[in-house]
Structure formats: structure tokens, C-alpha cells
Amino acid sequence: MKNKLIIIILLFTSCQNIQYRLIFFKWHNKKIIIPNDFNNNIFNSIDSLTSINYRLINIIDGSCSFCVGELKSWENIANELPAHIKVIIVIHSANYYYLDDYLNNIPMLFYIDDENFFLTKNKLPENIFFHTLLINNENKVKLIGNPIKSKEIKELLFEIAQQ
């Protein structure tokens, strides 16, 4: 664990933007508030989520065509991760009808967040880069940041996955 903290510190001290370091240290080990219906309302789920060690939660705006378009990249990441980490896409939007094709044709886990619970209750940063959280089975943040947008975050994610 000590080596991981050193890697994390080195990763974020090499970043040009101090905002990333501050956000990481603010969120590391912070407990995330999960909606009461979360485990019961996951689409495409055939497995129990209680037996997994980590959930990689990516929160997207369903009305953002670019964000929805990245679902294929998320499917690739999900396929590369070991079974003890599940990727869950949390979608908030006023209109979900056009998302039916994605929800039915991409073999991933989805949660429809009608009330934008994740962003509002957890007071996540405005920058969508930080709307991706790796949380453990105690709902504590182990990593924040988007592995699709950052090679360093992706490497760190896969290092944590090897544990």
C-alpha cells in the first residue's frame, strides 16, 4: 500500500495542474453515498454486485452524444478488467428513450439515475474527468479520474486490479 501511495503522489506531482492533485487527495478514501435502489436497479446484471471487490462507476449525462458515444471504449475497459471489478455506467438524463439501443446492445451494467443522485448527493467536481470513481465494497473511493482520458489513471486502475 505504501508503494501505491508513492506512485500516486509521483503521478500527481508530475501533473501540470495542481487541481488534479488536490481533488485526488480530497476524494481518496472518501465514502460515496449510494442510492438505496442501486443494486436492485442495475440493467444487464445477472450477477450479484455484493460479491465484487470494486466498482468502477462512470457517471455520464445521457443527453451528451459524445459521452454516450464513449460507451464502446468503456466496454473495452470492462472486458480487460478482472472479474472482481465491475464497470457500472450511471446515466442521468431527462430523456432515456434514444438510449435503448445502447442499453440493450452493449453488454455492460447500467444504472439510470433519474434524480442525478450521484452528482448532487456526493458533490462531485464539475469537471467530468472526475465523474469516474473506483470504489471498494465499503463504497470508499480508491481512484478518481477517467481511464479513457488518462493513460496514467488507466495504468493505476490496472495496478489496483492486480491486487
In brief, what are we looking at here?
By secondary structure, the protein is of the alpha/beta class. The protein is 37% helix and 19% strand.
Question: How would you describe what is shown here?
Answer:
This protein is of the alpha/beta class. The chain contains seven helices and six strands, in the order ααββααβαβαββα. The protein has helices spanning 2-13, 18-27, 65-69, 71-80, 100-105, 117-122, 151-161; strands at residues 42-43, 54-61, 85-92, 109-112, 132-136, 141-144. The longest helix is centred in the first third of the chain and has 12 residues, at 2-13. Helix 5 links the parallel strand 3 (85-92) and strand 4. The mean pLDDT is 81. The radius of gyration is 15 Å and the shape is globular. A six-stranded mixed beta sheet has the order 1-4-3-2-5-6.
Strand order of the largest sheet: 1-4-3-2-5-6
Alpha-carbon distance between the two ends: 10 Å
- Give the averaged pLDDT, no decimals: 81
The portion of residues forming beta strands comes to: 15-25%
| Radius of gyration, whole Å | 15 Å
Return residue spans where pLDDT drops below 50 for at least 5 consecutive residues: none
Features:
163 residues, alpha/beta, 6-stranded mixed sheet, 7 helices, 6 strands, globular
Question: Topology, please?
Answer:
Layout: H1 2-13, H2 18-27, E1 42-43, E2 54-61, H3 65-69, H4 71-80, E3 85-92, H5 100-105, E4 109-112, H6 117-122, E5 132-136, E6 141-144, H7 151-161
Parallel strand pairs: 2-3, 3-4
Antiparallel strand pairs: 1-4, 2-5, 5-6
